[in-house]
Design a protein that fits this description.
The chain is α+β, with helices and mostly antiparallel strands. The protein is built from seven helices and five strands; from the N terminus they run ααααβββαββαα.
Length: 233
């Protein structure tokens, strides 16, 4: 989709639904375009968006070459991220409340991270009096799911565990802004599962044998290691 067509579609739906704001949407589109950096360097490590596939984590941790496919839809997602986050920022009117957009973090205080680092960038974290109380992961999708997708649950679970926030929201929105859904995940319901997954991932990335693909989670067609992975099977 051409970014101009996307902008028109987005603005039309914003006017009808009044979900965000016209100025916010336009700013989101402009920022999405101006912030694109083709020289971005991927840092090897464990990343939440890879957490659903042991083999992908293995490739990432050991610094295998990545082949990132060019996808104009990335601009759509990035613009929507900006629009939603700017709207959330403007909605807060109490001084003790704060919304942090793109919360960068490097997790190394966890016991298991004495042997490897978990790197990530959460879409946003809501704080009250400086304490994180909730996070949000924004997903653009062609079809809105009736429940969180398994790989998204694992990604968000690791964010939640590392940031130690009790609640996390997965916000799904389609690319023309006509449909959306929000799901809430509680850390207390997921903490043990994430800890077990971290231990499992530790043994997978440290093994001399590459882990098996985890097809039930991964969308292999968009994986940057697809060519390497397919060649080894």
């Amino acid at each position: 989709m051409d970014i101009r067509d996307f902008g028109s579609s987005l603005l039309d739906n914003l006017i009808k639904g009044n979900d965000f704001g016209i100025h916010t949407a336009l700013t989101g589109i402009v920022n999405a375009l101006t912030e694109y950096d083709p020289s971005y360097k991927f840092v090897p490590g464990i990343h939440p968006h890879e957490f659903s596939c042991g083999r992908r984590c293995y490739y990432s941790y050991h610094g295998y070459d990545r082949k990132v496919l060019s996808d104009p839809r990335a601009f759509v997602g990035k613009a929507l991220h900006k629009a939603i986050n700017m709207t959330l920022e403007r909605a807060l009117n109490r001084p003790e409340e704060k919304w942090i957009y793109k919360a960068d973090y490097l997790i190394n205080h966890l016991e298991i991270c004495k042997t490897f680092e978990i790197r990530g960038e959460a879409d946003g974290v809501f704080l009250i009096e400086g304490k994180p109380v909730a996070g949000m992961e924004i997903k653009t999708a062609g079809t809105i799911p009736s429940e969180p997708l398994p790989d998204h649950e694992l990604q968000v679970g690791l964010y939640q565990y590392c940031l130690d926030v009790p609640y996390y929201f997965i916000f799904y929105i389609n690319r023309d802004c006509t449909k959306k859904a929000v799901f809430m995940l509680k850390l207390k319901d997921r903490k043990r599962m994430i800890e077990n997954r971290l231990v499992d991932m530790y043994f997978k990335i440290k093994s001399e044998v590459k882990p098996e693909k985890e097809k039930e989670f991964m969308r292999c067609s968009r994986c940057p290691y697809k060519e390497t992975c397919d060649a080894e099977d």
